[in-house]
Amino acid sequence: MNTTEESPVRKEEREEFFKLLENDIIKEYLDQDRCLRTSDKFLLAMVLAYFHRAKMDLDEYNVLMFFTALSLANMVEEDEPFQREIYPWVLGQTWFVLLPEFERLRNLFWERMNYRGLVTRSTCEQIMGEDPMHWAWLRVRKDHHSWVFRSHLRWKDEYRLRGPGRSPINCYLCAF
């Protein structure tokens, strides 16, 4: 990274974000997303960029806002509907009842960012470049999960929601 460029996020924001990633619920979610379908390094960098764009106070860095931002990042960047897996993690077993409220929160968050949902690859790389060896930035999605396989070529169980406390579906391509 060019040292004359200004970082897209402040050091305090990165540190608070890294602390948030150590939250038990978030860590378990990230561990369960073994194929990195909803939480690869670029999507996580987008969450931090979103927190900065929304001008969030550090005390607003919490589990609900993390999943709100992650859901928005997936909505903006991903073609496949794997973002639905986020709902049972953040909303619990009755997620389908609470989903309209969560979607309202996601829309308010998006509005707070002035509807600036796109984050360039270079911005993500700049964010990751500040602490390149942090474990979050080592979450590289494998090429076979780059969504070159259209949904009609995928097996139905791939789209089934699992939620907390349930093993992820074994990926025959990743040998899980």
What separation lies between the terminal Cα atoms?
35 Å
**How many beta-strand runs?**
0
Tell me the strand percentage band: under 5%
SS field, number of helical segments: 7
Shape: globular
Instruction: Give the radius of gyration.
Output: 16 Å
- State the share of residues found in helices, binned by percent: 40-55%
Report the order of strands and helices.
Answer: HHHHHHH
What are the segments in which pLDDT stays under 50 over at least 5 consecutive residues? none
Q: Briefly note the structural class of the backbone.
A: mainly alpha
The average pLDDT is 85
Counting structural domains, the number is: 1
Largest sheet: none
Overall description:
GO terms for molecular function: protein kinase binding. It holds the Pfam family Spy1. Keywords: Cell cycle. Belongs to the Speedy/Ringo family. InterPro entries: Speedy, Speedy-Ringo_regulator. The model has no long low-confidence stretch (mean pLDDT 85). The chain is mainly alpha-helical and 176 residues long. It starts with 10 loop residues before the first helix and ends in a 47-residue tail after the last helix. The radius of gyration is 16 Å and the shape is globular. Helix content is 46%, strand content 0%. It has one domain (11-159). It has helices at 11-21, 24-32, 41-53, 63-77, 86-91, 95-112, 121-129. The chain has seven helices and no strands.
